[in-house]
């Protein structure tokens, strides 16, 4: 009885599971249908809303948009007249006069001047070094004695010639010129005179050696270096020191070849262009030195292919002035602002207002005009225009994002448009 009852229960349980699975599937199908219907309803509502929005949008008026499209700008005017442009150049300070002092005789250094030290200043004719001249003094005395002996020999020879000439006249005979010269001792006389001249030359050489044992400054100079000390043994040509002149330094500067035409090089009729020299890194602000274009070097600089000029600066170490001026240092890298030739009958305009392809923006009858101009010269700050612009023209200084000929403009009276990019 027990096993039958168990089999019946299992069959009934299987039928129950099958009924439950069918119900789940029906529920899922119904949920999908509801979801699709909801989505369709949402899409329909969105479509209706979009239709209503687009059909009720206000219409833009073209006339009103045109009236409000005029760009707000600032304007300025150029300056008409005669100007001297400024040419910017960089250069290196060089000595105008420099020597490497050397010994001309050999010997021992027995004296050195107090100012003959690196950084010292010496005057022209000041003793820098003395070389022991004892040997040269002895040689001078010997050469003078030799000269006295040669002069005495010449006097003796003259006496003998006079005696020979007297005897020759007593014989009252005419001899061939060659024989007569021998009888009158002319060869001996020439030899005696030559000995005197040679002795005088020896004396002069000995005097020079004595003088050269004392080395003096050839000009007012700044001592850059000294190569000897007391007791040093020197020979002819040995280096003693290095001197540079105090009166003038040169600045070797480079400029573009195209700007040379605006520079003045001194000649008989005119001075060179004036130059303002400054060193932004080492000198106080607004402190400068003055110079003048001195020469044009007839060779371009190697890689840059720039022209080289010399700028002369007098009293570079500021020793002859009471003003507190900076000193130029050899090898210093400085800025040169060179005053160019006069430009006559031109309009000067800030170069920031020069637009692409050498044009300027003008405001004419409240419209934008793109005006080509002829630029004669440009320096660091200004453009100098000889054609295409007058002093009465109103130049637009405001940057415009959209540039078109005939664009409507209006002047900014409050300065709000300055330096702004305005999209037309």
Automatic annotation (TrEMBL):
SUPFAM superfamilies: HlyD-like secretion proteins (SSF111369). Residues 98-240 form the Multidrug resistance protein MdtA-like barrel-sandwich hybrid domain. One of its GO terms (molecular function) is efflux transmembrane transporter activity. InterPro entries: MdtA-like_BSH, RND_pump_MFP. Residues 147-216 form a coiled coil. The chain crosses the membrane at residues 35-54. PANTHER family: MULTIDRUG RESISTANCE PROTEIN MDTA. This is Efflux RND transporter periplasmic adaptor subunit.
């Amino acid at each position: 009885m027990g096993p039958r009852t168990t089999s019946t229960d299992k069959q009934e349980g299987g039928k129950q599971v099958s009924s439950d699975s069918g119900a789940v599937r029906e529920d899922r199908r119904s949920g999908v249908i509801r979801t699709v219907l909801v989505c369709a309803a949402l899409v329909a509502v969105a479509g209706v809303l979009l239709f209503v929005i687009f059909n009720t949008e206000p219409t833009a008026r073209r006339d009103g948009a045109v009236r409000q499209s005029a760009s707000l700008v600032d304007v300025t005017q150029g300056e008409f007249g005669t100007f001297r442009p400024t040419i910017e150049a960089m250069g290196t300070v060089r000595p105008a006069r420099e020597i490497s002092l050397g010994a001309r005789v050999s010997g021992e250094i027995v004296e050195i001047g107090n100012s003959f030290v690196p950084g010292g200043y010496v005057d022209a004719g000041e003793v820098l070094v003395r070389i022991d001249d004892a040997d040269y003094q002895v040689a001078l005395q010997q050469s003078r004695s030799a000269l006295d002996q040669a002069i005495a020999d010449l006097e003796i020879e003259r006496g003998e010639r006079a005696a020979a000439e007297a005897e020759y006249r007593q014989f009252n005979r005419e001899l061939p010129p060659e024989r007569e010269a021998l009888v009158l001792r002319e060869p001996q006389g020439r030899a005696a005179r030559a000995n005197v001249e040679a002795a005088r030359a020896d004396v002069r050489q000995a005097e020079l050696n004595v003088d050269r044992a004392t080395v003096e400054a050839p000009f007012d100079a700044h001592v850059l270096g000294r190569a000897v000390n007391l007791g040093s043994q020197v020979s002819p040509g040995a280096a003693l020191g290095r001197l540079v002149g105090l009166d003038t330094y040169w600045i070797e500067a480079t400029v573009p070849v195209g700007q040379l035409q605006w520079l003045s090089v001194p000649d008989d009729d005119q001075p060179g262009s004036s130059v303002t020299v400054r060193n932004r890194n080492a000198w106080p602000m607004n402190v400068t030195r003055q110079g003048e274009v001195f020469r044009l070097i007839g060779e371009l600089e190697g890689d840059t292919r720039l022209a080289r000029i010399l700028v002369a600066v007098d009293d570079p170490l500021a020793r002859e002035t009471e003003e507190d001026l900076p000193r130029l240092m050899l090898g210093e890298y400085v800025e040169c602002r060179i005053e160019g030739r006069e430009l006559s009958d031109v309009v000067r305009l800030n170069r920031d207002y020069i637009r692409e392809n050498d044009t300027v923006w003008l405001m004419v009858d409240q419209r934008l005009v793109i005006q080509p101009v002829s630029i004669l010269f440009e320096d660091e700050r200004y453009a100098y225009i000889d054609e295409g612009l007058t002093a009465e023209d109103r130049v637009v200084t405001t940057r415009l994002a959209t540039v078109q000929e005939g664009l409507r403009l209006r002047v900014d009276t409050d300065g709000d448009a300055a330096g702004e990019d305005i999209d037309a």
